[in-house]
Amino acid sequence: QLQLVESGGGLVHPGGSLRLSCTASGDIVHIYTMGWYRQTPGKERDLLTSITSDGNTNYRDSAKGRFTISIDNAKNTVLLQMNNLKPEDTAVYYCNADIWVRGTWGRRNYWGQGTQVTVSS
User: Fold this and answer.
1) DSSP count for the chain of H helices, then E strands
2) CA 38 to chain centre
3) 3-7 and 28-39: which strand pairing?
4) Strands 46-52 and 107-111, how do they pair?
5) For all residues of the chain together, what is the average pLDDT?
6) Local structure of residue 84 (DSSP, 8 states)
7) Could you give phi then psi for residue 85, rounded to 5 degrees?
8) What is the Cα–Cα distance from 107 to 27, expressed in whole angstroms?
9) CA-CA distance, 62 to 60, in Å (whole number)?
10) Taking Cα atoms as reference points, which of 24, 32, 22, 89 lies closest to residue 55?
């Protein structure tokens, strides 16, 4: 069984910073990609940013220049550094990953539990 455990959410003022962390645990053969989605009530869960194990990144336009995703393969951890946070960044942030777990036959998708980020004055 594989788990994605998130941490780092909380309440910040506009312009503040926050760092989210997501660690995959389990008998991992290979991590293909890790990334972050976000969702607000009544809206779809949208991909914000992702990264491959070799470091290739993708960002939604709204995150470019403010958010930075990184991966530590040795720790099976993806980080999301969020700077200059805005009220519209308020959402539940979900870690997501494509991972090959030993005992399965290939690449599968997994979700973290979600962590609340609130940006408010």
Assistant:
1) 0, 11
2) 9
3) unpaired
4) unpaired
5) 97
6) S
7) -65, 145
8) 13
9) 5
10) 32
